[in-house]
Inverse folding.
């Protein structure tokens, strides 16, 4: 008798859990559906009767017997849009993408995932990592005692997750509070495991605020490499300083044989800066980098040629972590025939596509605008494909070579008039 | 961005005389004339030869705020500057037939076509009494409720550019809303402005607060004080060097 009552209670509890799950999935469905209704750049998203879509799919979510089934139904619904950058990411995968650093402290390491492994791609001069002898090309095995490979494998299992998110998740695991330390294990050039404790210092650059956005460290560097000017900056932010530095760098190399603008790892920022910088490189008026389509307006990204324009060859370097404004800049100059793009395909996130956590814990990615580069290609979901695809490799990094910079330099030299 | 502020001010000033009848619909001309009357009268406007207006600009959604200063001189000189720490300085100006803008983000440029025509209309300090010249066709399109108040919907059509629609309160005669499609370098952008908190600035009532929605952005401009008939050095309205270089470059071609 007692056992039966216990089973009844247990069954009731299970039933309650099922109802709670269903309710969360229905709420998640409503969140996804209404977000598309309210934020999609087309009043009629994808040309569809969005209310009819709601009425068709909601009963299926209500009847779904598991979260996986509910998720599949929601994914199918947004798949009807036929547009990229609308995706549902399972909670289990979403959680490994947590890119919330525990603090701003950095080791000075930049890293990318190459062939399924986190690899050091650069080490800031004077940083704790450099002082401890960490070198580009070293493979990062573990941080804070946790292996990185399972994280990478799990993230890669979902096609909606792009390199930018994965890299951010990896870099977050290389950070912590300023003044703290980070235990890390690397594979060095000889394949030996190197365990080091790295100090965490202030990030490179100047802390820059832009309204409500969290303040971020912005750095800009330019240097002469032979007769070529090399420019790199980490964000299209800190507008007055970065624009002035860019202008100064470009105007200082009137006699350079070329210009390299390295946007690898640059996730974007203020979109207008792409137009402003392009004005130093494009002489013909009324040229556009592309066009952004929002729900109530269409914005042409027009370039204003400056009084002193650089006429020499321009190489723009990109990778899967070049996003948003970086893509607008690189894609636009490529389409205008003003720059040759080197590296790997960009993040395909030219727009303010956003990620939100749904009531059931899953992640929801959606885009709120469409951006068509001047060549007629939407950047969102497709990204900028380089003119010359050059991938970083661990052996080249270990040998002290940045293959992408090398390729750009080689092209610039080939453009030299005899 | 700041151009539309001027469109509003232009329309706010665009009227002359009085003569308002309740029923049937009063003429658009009488509504615009009444507006001049209730905001200070033709004489008050004509007495103003120069002005410097000071205020702030705020983008609440972005959390960005800055200062703005507007210089104007009869008949057609205008210089407007907005300074926001995170963005830098933005300037726009009209000096006779030349309309230009310059910003830290986009650089200098000369305006042309419809955009130039709109800027020149905005740069006309005598727009108040010259509205008939600026908008050859005006029409009262009826009554609409704005915030529960009956307003006359006046469509003002210029020779060049999109019509400007002003909404004037039936009760007070004040303009409370304005909408148009602005011609900008980035394309035609729908603009809607809400004017409120009218205050007397040197004998003329002006909205101390204007909230503007232009495309995806919404921002608020607050007018703090207006210097009436100050001495403004002529170089204030001169083309900045960067813009002058563009003019020279275009001429050299």
């Amino acid at each position: 008798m007692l056992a039966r009552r216990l089973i009844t209670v247990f069954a009731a509890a299970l039933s309650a859990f099922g109802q709670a799950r269903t309710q969360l999935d229905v709420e998640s469905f409503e969140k996804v559906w209404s977000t598309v209704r309210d934020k999609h750049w087309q009043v009629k998203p994808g040309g569809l009767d969005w209310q009819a879509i709601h009425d068709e799919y909601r009963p299926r979510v209500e009847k779904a017997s598991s979260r996986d089934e509910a998720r599949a139904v929601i994914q199918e619904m947004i798949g009807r849009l036929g547009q990229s950058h609308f995706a549902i990411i399972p909670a289990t995968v979403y959680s490994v993408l947590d890119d919330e650093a525990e603090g701003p402290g950095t080791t000075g390491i930049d890293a990318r995932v190459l062939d399924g492994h986190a690899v050091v791609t650069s080490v800031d001069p004077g940083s704790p990592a450099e002082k401890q002898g960490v070198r580009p090309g070293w493979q990062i095995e573990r941080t804070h005692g946790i292996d990185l490979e399972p994280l990478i494998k799990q993230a890669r299992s979902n096609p909606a997750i792009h390199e930018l998110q994965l890299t951010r998740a990896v870099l977050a695991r290389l950070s912590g509070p300023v003044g703290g330390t980070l235990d890390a294990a690397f594979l060095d050039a000889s394949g030996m495991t190197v365990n080091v404790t790295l100090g965490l210092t202030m990030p490179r650059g100047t802390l820059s605020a832009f309204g409500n956005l969290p303040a971020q460290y912005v750095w800009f560097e330019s240097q002469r490499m032979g007769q070529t000017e090399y420019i790199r900056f980490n964000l299209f932010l800190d507008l007055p300083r970065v624009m002035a530095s860019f202008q100064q760098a470009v105007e200082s190399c009137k006699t350079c044989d070329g210009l390299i603008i390295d946007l690898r790892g640059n996730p974007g920022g203020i979109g207008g800066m792409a137009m402003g910088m392009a004005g130093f490189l494009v002489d013909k008026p009324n040229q556009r980098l592309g066009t952004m389509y929002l729900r109530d307006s269409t914005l042409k990204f027009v370039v204003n040629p400056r009084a002193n324009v650089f006429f020499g060859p321009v190489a723009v370097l990109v990778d899967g972590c070049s996003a948003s404004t970086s893509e607008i800049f690189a894609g636009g100059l490529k389409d205008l025939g003003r720059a040759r793009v080197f590296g790997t395909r960009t993040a395909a996130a030219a727009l303010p596509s956003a990620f939100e956590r749904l009531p059931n814990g899953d992640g929801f990615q959606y885009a709120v605008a469409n951006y068509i580069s001047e060549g007629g290609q939407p950047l969102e979901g497709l990204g900028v494909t380089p003119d010359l695809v050059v991938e970083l490799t661990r052996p080249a990094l270990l040998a002290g070579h940045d293959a992408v910079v090398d390729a750009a330099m080689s092209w610039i030299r080939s453009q030299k008039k005899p | 961005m700041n151009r539309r502020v001027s469109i509003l001010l232009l329309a706010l000033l665009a009227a002359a005389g009085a003569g308002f009848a309740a029923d049937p619909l009063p003429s658009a001309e009488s509504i615009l004339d009444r507006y001049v009357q209730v905001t200070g009268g033709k004489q008050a406007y004509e007495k103003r030869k120069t002005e410097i207006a000071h205020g702030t600009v705020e983008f609440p959604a972005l959390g960005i705020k800055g200062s703005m200063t507007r210089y104007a001189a009869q008949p057609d000189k205008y210089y407007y500057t907005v300074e926001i720490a995170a963005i830098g300085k933005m300037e726009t100006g009209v000096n006779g037939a030349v309309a230009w803008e310059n910003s830290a983000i986009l650089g200098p440029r000369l305006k042309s076509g419809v955009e130039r025509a709109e800027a020149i209309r905005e740069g006309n300090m005598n727009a108040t009494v010259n509205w008939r010249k600026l908008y050859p066709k005006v029409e009262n399109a009826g009554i609409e409720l704005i915030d529960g108040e009956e307003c006359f919907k006046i469509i003002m059509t210029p020779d060049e550019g999109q019509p400007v629609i002003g909404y004037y309160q039936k009760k007070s005669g004040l303009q409370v809303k304005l909408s148009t499609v602005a011609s900008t370098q980035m394309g035609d952008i729908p603009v809607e402005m809400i004017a409120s908190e009218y205050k007397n600035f040197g004998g003329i009532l002006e909205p101390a607060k204007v909230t503007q929605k232009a495309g995806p952005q919404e921002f608020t401009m607050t007018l703090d004080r207006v210097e009436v008939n100050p001495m403004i050095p002529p170089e204030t309205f001169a083309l900045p060097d960067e813009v002058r270089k563009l003019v020279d470059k275009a001429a050299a071609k």
Q: What stands out?
A: Residues 2-252 of chain B form a domain with the outer membrane lipoprotein receptor (LolB), chain A fold (CATH 2.50.20.10). The longest helix of chain B spans residues 2-13.
